[in-house]
Amino acid sequence: MSLHAHLSELSEKHKLLDRRIEEELSRPGSNDVEITRLKLEKLKLKDEIIRLSARKSH
Predict the structure, then answer these.
(1) Would the CA dihedral through 40, 42, 47, 51 be positive or negative?
(2) Contact 45, 10 (CB under 8 A)
(3) Which of these, 2, 20, 48, 52, has the minimum number of CB atoms within 10 Å of its CB?
């Protein structure tokens, strides 16, 4: 898989997590543990995207 394709895939996963977080927050009685888990996963993806983007630029 090319770097560009991998970055695109990670970006799509990041957007999906963002939607899942919003859905969870909008539900009555939302699960704080699940929201935290999703946010951590989203942050890890963002870090990976930034790391790979920096590598792509060099």
Answers:
(1) positive
(2) yes
(3) 2
pTM of the model: 0.85
Q: Taking the alpha carbons of 34, 37, 43, 45 in that order, is the dihedral positive or negative?
A: negative
* Rounded CA separation 39/42 (Å): 5
Q: Which residue has the tokens 């993806």?
A: 45
Identity of the residue numbered 38: L
Angle, in degrees to the nearest 10, between helices 3-26 and 32-57: 160
Encoded tokens for 12: 């799509």
Q: Which of 52, 25, 27 is nearest to 38 (CA)?
A: 25
